[in-house]
Amino acid sequence: MAQRSLTAWFTLPGLREKAPPTPAEAASFDALAPKLGYLSKAEVKRVREAYKFADEAHLGQKRATGEPYITHPIAVAGICAEWRLDAQALMAALMHDVVEDCGVSKAELIEKFDATTADLVDGLTKLDKLQFSTKEESQAESFRKMLLAMARDLRVILIKLADRLHNMRTMGAMAPHKARRIARETFDIYAPIAHRLGLNQTFRELQDLSFQYFHPWRYAALTKAVAKARGNRRDLVSRIEGEIRAAFAKAGLRVEVQGREKTVYSIYRKMREKDLMSFAQVSDIFGFRILTEEPLQCYTALGVLHQLYKPQAGRFKDYIANPKDNGYQSLHTTLMGPLSTPLEFQLRTEGMHQIAEQGVAAHWIYKSRSKQASSLIAQQANARWLQSLIDIQDETRDANEFLEHVKIDLFPDSIYVFTPKSRIMALPKGATPVDFAYAIHSDVGDHCVAAQVNGEAVPLRAELKSGDIVEIITAPGASPNPAWLSFVRTGRARSKIRHFLKDLEQEESRELGEKMLAQAMRVEGLGLPSLELDDPAAPIWHELATWAGSAGTEQLLMDIGAGRKIAAIIAKRLARLMAEQGQKPDALALTLGRFTEAPINESSITIDGSEGASVQLATCCRPIPGDEVRGYLGRGEGLVVHTCDCQVGKRLFQRDSEHWIRVEWSEEPTRSFEAGITLLLANGKGVLAQVAQAVAQGGADITHIAMGDDAPLSDTTETAEMNLLIAVRDRLHLADVLRVLRRTPAVQRVARAKP
């Protein structure tokens, strides 16, 4: 294998100096033709036809730089040609803006070219024709469309990345505030997607270009410092190069030695992470890459390097045995070179190197069987991520939430853990057993109750580390906990948990809505018609839902339970529809209903604590069984229960009395309820222990403790105020606890907290 000189290795990949084409060349097919040698004559002819179509469509349009607009599609197609994408992808690259900017329809593209090319162009087209409430919502929906099109055909995102790359390279003519916004979007979304798909060369360039526009002064200063350091360290680099070559020649190992330089952004990030005050403190801006012919030779070459220079402890990573999630394979090691200079080395085969730089694009680049085999890892790894996008989409209809999940999955670092059957799984750094459970299967995640790591029980929020053997313990009746959302790291886990909780909330809202409507119908002297689809009453429900503006009967009941519709009003309409079919109210039921439920908007609801998210107990007054209560049906918030003497509730009632209904406690509540109490304590040793003992003696549990004015007990104060939340069964139980506390010597005053 030939060894290349390092004299020109300081040029960043993707930023090599090239003679710029003349304006006429850039705007003609001649700028693209030399890159199409890998296509057949028939394919080149089709690409030329797409160019002519795009050229005519963009005729008269100019870019911000003043160039003809067609120069941009030609440049995008040129980048795609460097990745050796097929003719259809190049045609879509040339026409990627004709639908959005020129009014060309998808049907027209299908007729003139083919359905696949039209689908690619459509996947790249923004959703400008739809109406969105905010620009952010529009952007999120466009991203969702693009990513889902990508999941169906990977060429969509490759063309989009080429599009963004050329836009970033030519953004100098744009207004600074627009350039910063686009740079931030590129940095947050497109650069991570390039990394996730293994296009590291594109990833590094997008990061650097983004950094250039949102921190121009820092970029300029670091670029100047790197150029200066490059000249100052030339002798040292030449010495290291000579020693490396001599060592491999002595070992009889044929390798290719390449130099590499950290990108400007990676240097800036390292300075921030290590709190370095100046560029002079950055010691390892240069590194080397060793390319071998076979994977086994990578390990042999590693041994040669470790004999030549001393390795730094804990700075070796084997991504050949454990590839990254995007298919990346390489050995990484950091050695102490001459003059105690840290040197980073990457060792890989030529096939691994192409995968590392081009990622999934290598699938189109490779023609030989051996290199196709090398690219298979990247394809399989990214197929798993693309499938996860489809899974997330199936459970996330909100575009902003979908984008949030995708951002979570665009992680730069991975850990590698094992199932008890030795199956290896890649997860983001900081992942937990819950992430692991959902990565195995959604059913495992939904029913997860405990976890063991390396044979020992751990909390579900524990962070996993590479090499851990993880076992998930499930239970048939278990379900996801909302608290899991605070620590899970994968988009898949987050979307699955949210999907389950939404379904649960909708079911609870539906049950509450049915209950509220049934009780409102008693005021009308009628029973609730059957909800069975094949029942004769089905048309009534359909007409009622249409009148109420709900999508169907189920949605109508959920709207009532969530407070978006008032049960009494819906009941009156339903009673009228039933009367039209000859169903008259029962006289006795009507009399009893109206006697017990005087105002029609106060149909009573009985609660026992088992209602779930559809019924909330207000935190301002914390009602418990025995309190006189009433409920507020907030718009979309479900039923919020206040005590009748709650000042917050009274003010809300004065503003919006129509949304209040009567609420009653069940005779047999199913759980305990939190009540707030305030204590004035005489300061002294063991005061907290006395209070805790008194609460326990009263048969209650303390769920939260807070000191008044956030001041802890100290020796300098005679008294202190303490606020407790305690779990009690009802008002009688609370009274018992207060009596016990009043008998406690340290307690000078105790009362239930009032809002």
UniProtKB/TrEMBL annotation:
CDD domains: ACT_RelA-SpoT, HDc, NT_Rel-Spo_like, TGS_RSH
Domain HD residues, every copy: 69-168
Enzyme Commission number, as recorded: 2.7.6.5
Domain ACT, residue spans: 676-755
Keywords: Transferase
Transferase is among the record's keywords: yes
Function: In eubacteria ppGpp (guanosine 3'-diphosphate 5'-diphosphate) is a mediator of the stringent response that coordinates a variety of cellular activities in response to changes in nutritional abundance.
UniProt GO MF annotations: GTP diphosphokinase activity
SUPFAM superfamilies associated with the record: HD-domain/PDEase-like, Nucleotidyltransferase, TGS-like
EC class: transferase
UniProt protein name: RelA/SpoT family protein
Residue span(s) of domain TGS: 413-474
InterPro entries registered for this protein in UniProt: ACT_dom, Beta-grasp_dom_sf, HD/PDEase_dom, HD_domain, NT_sf, RelA/Spo_fam, RelA_SpoT, TGS
Species assigned in the record: Pelomonas dachongensis
Record family assignment: Belongs to the relA/spoT family.
